[in-house]
Amino acid sequence: WILSGMGVQGGLEKIAAELPGVGLVAENGCMLKPPGQSEWVNLVPDFNLDWKTPALEILTYYTDRTPGTFLENRGASICWRFGNEERDEAAQKWIRRSSAEAQNHIWDSLGEIYSLRIIPGSSSFLILPKNTSRSTAVGTILSSHETNGPILPRSTSEDVALLSPGSPLSLRSPQPPGQEQNVPILYIGTDEHLIRRLNELVTAETCAAGGRATFAKWRIDTTQIGGLLASFS
């Protein structure tokens, strides 16, 4: 599985086409594609998306007055990117200020009303439902393994019926009774909340990328990640 903050369109759809056997989590846990399947599962189908219209209006204002920035309107989230290319000090300060003002504006006017959260990054920030994360997506994946059933979003009874065992969106084919399957898990990343959650599983190995303090069982230099993953292919 690849856990990503990228959107499906213009982002992970290319990876999905080239690596159909790899499961993908998009938008920091809002969307999920099981391995070997082509359809994406919306993990927040009942979440009110009315916040997106005023949020886009606010962010368009900051985009128009901040050169080099642009919007990504995704399925259940919005990303505001301001790039990381080299700029003079004055331009860099202006972008940082605009980014901070935009985040504060979104939070003050929409955050609590619509139960949103904002994930800041070095060259972007992401706005998405508050109770959605990569960790919740992993919980959904692990639950489907434990119950030997499909991936089910937090949804209505109609959605549950659509994703009944044996449906095209099932994570894997049901196993015969009594034939339980342990799922080995290797996580490489920096999400400490997810690392602590996975450490509770006997079949999981967690590996921190970078040198900061971590609860991960192992460490790896970021330059070694590509070679490590290639060794599993």
From TrEMBL:
InterPro entries: Glyco_trans_20, HAD-like_sf, Trehalose_PPase. It comes from the Eukaryota. Residues 162-173 have a biased composition (Low complexity). GO terms for molecular function: alpha,alpha-trehalose-phosphate synthase (UDP-forming) activity; trehalose-phosphatase activity. GO terms for cellular component: alpha,alpha-trehalose-phosphate synthase complex (UDP-forming); cytosol. Residues 148-178 are annotated as: Disordered. GO terms for biological process: trehalose biosynthetic process. This is Uncharacterized protein. It comes from Rhizoctonia solani.
